[in-house]
Amino acid sequence: MHFVERLDSGVVIISIKGKLTGPPETDMLCERIQSKIEEGRLNIVLNLKHINWMSSLGVGALMKNLRNVREAGGDLRLTGLSDKIKDIFQITKLIGVIQIYDSDVEAAESFKDEPKA
Predict the structure, then answer these.
(1) Can you tell me whether residue 114 is helix, strand or coil?
(2) Exposed e or buried b for every residue in 33-57, given b needs 16+ CB within 10 A?
(3) What total of structural domains would you count in the chain?
(4) What predicted TM-score, i.e. pTM, was given to this entire model?
C-alpha cells in the first residue's frame, strides 16, 4: 500500500494506492490516520481512486478511523470510489454514515461549510 499526502486549506488529503483487505494494509491506514489525529489535523479526506479492492476488513478499518477522527472532534470524508466500492457502501448502508464526494476539492470545501462549534 502506498500513501500520497497533501494539505489543502488545513484539510489533509491522503490518496491511497493498493488494496484494503486486512493487515498489514488496514494497520498502515489506521497508523496514518492516528498520526494525523495526534498532530491535531482532524479534517481528513481519503481518496480511494487507486484502491482496486476492499474487503469487509477494509470497510471496518474505514469505520474505525471515522469513529476515531469524530471522537477527536474532526471528520473523515471519502472521494474517488469506484463503482464496486460504492456498491459495498450502499449494500452495507454506510453511504449515509460517511460523506462521499466526487473530488478532493469538493470534499475539502465541504469542511468550510460546516458550522464552527
Answers:
(1) coil
(2) beebbeeebbbbbbbbeebeebeee
(3) 1
(4) 0.93
C-alpha cell at 51: 484502491
CATH number at residue 41: 3.30.750.24
Does residue 117 lie in a domain region? no
Q: 104, 114, 117, 100: which is closest to 8 by C-alpha?
A: 104
Please tell me the distance from the alpha carbon of residue 81 to that of residue 116, in angstroms, as a whole number. Answer: 28
CA dihedral 27→103→72→22, nearest 10 degrees, is: -20
List, for residues 15-48, the tens digit of each pLDDT value: 999 999 999 999 999 999 999 999 999 999 999 9
